[in-house]
Amino acid sequence: MADQPKLPNRQTPFSQAFRDFIPQGWAPYSDVLPEPLPATRFTEARRLALSEQFAGDRLVIPAGELKVRSNDTDFRYRPHSAFAHLTGLGTDREPGAVLILEPTDDGHDATLYFRPRSPRTDPEFYADARYGEMWVGQRDSLAEMEALTGLACAPVSRLSDALAKNAGSTRVLVVADADEQVTDLVSSQRATLGLAAEASADELLAVALSELRLTKDAFEAEQMRVACDVTADGFEAVVRALPEAIRRGRGERWVEGVFGLHARHAGNAVGYDTIAASGDHANTLHWITNDGDLAPGDLLLLDAGVELDSLYTADITRTLPVTGRFTPAQRKVYEAVLAAQEAGIAAARPGARFADVHAAATRVIAERLADWGVLPVTAEQSLDPETGGHHRRWMVHGTSHHLGIDVHDCAQARQQNYREGILAPGMVITVEPGLYFKSTDLLVPEELRGIGVRIEDDVLITDGGCENLSARLPRTPDEVENWMAGLLGHN
Fold first, then answer.
1. pLDDT at 441 over 80
2. Domain covering 31-211 in this structure, CATH number
3. What string of DSSP letters covers 174-215?
4. Active site residue 418
């Protein structure tokens, strides 16, 4: 698809002698095909489930293009989640690729259009900084990509011909800031066939692709277990590094770096920007500046997750005493949040409403705030959706979201299937209540000001309840202190 614009002052001329010389003397490419990607045992069923919803329609699912970060450098590439889910392609794959499900009499035929490696005689091999083998490494051949994905594959140069075929309705997943040529080709095809713009049809495809991920298959569930496990390793690495983070100054940045190093080594990267919030910074819900010091006596709210090479990510939060021991006021807030989380986890069972988890957790929050004399009304009055909500001053966010190949997975799902939906085995959600008492909040006791606590775990809904995928990390204050003491060598 679209290449970066060439910069005249960076173009290097190549002599004919060089062009003749460069393809000589290379070992032949291996003729041993790669093993299928682990997800391919499940991707055919995912495509079939999508196919059944759109009989007779051509479905176009782009991976997304490389995106310029600055001048002639690109952001590290990550394919669109729907594309990855349907193909099994994860880390760094496959910029500019497009999956097309072409309608047939009994379903759809799937073809992956991508940019295979060019011959060594082609200038792309040595002169293309975005796709050339000399620059970015050896790309897959058509046969290799077919072996990896189990899909029929074709060069992306043939994409326009494929889209020009008369297939009736075409639905395209519109990827923001990418794939303009794909959407332009679809628009041109629609115009040629006299079809009106089908924005609503495209939106329905986006919704279907999102809802397809509401219930995870066995491969996805296991990937989530692995993601949570290696994330726990990262949290342990952070705790061991806390003395150095204190000593260095700007300790939040040190914590972010330690976890990021672990995430990059164990998986693809972090699943989202790490929140490493010390002291009052913990009361800024999405604190990602991470430029503050870590001070003895403060809490560190660490919200972080490792994204695997398959792109499935954990999303875990622990609030840790920087030097390993909670103060009485910190413990008081922490125990309230823990009780709320326990109530939320207990409500996370098949047949329950998604909203029941939030309701259970926030009831505990409201009751604790009322017991402490912080609420200006009773807990019941605060929980009244029509006239209350006072407790939301100190916990403004929801308790749960779906989790998977996106940290906020299934975000385009319809409200009746998400917020108003029913929990079912295979769903993965977070349970993450919190209490946030800003240092400037004069309505809370002075001893609580500046304390922010969130506890977040990732749970898989099972036939009989739920499995806490991140249970390896301790949650009670005593367990947290003992765990930290062991890692810090305080035993």
1. yes
2. 3.40.350.10
3. PPTTS-HHHHHHHHHHHHHTTPPP-HHHHHHHHHHHHHTTSS
4. no
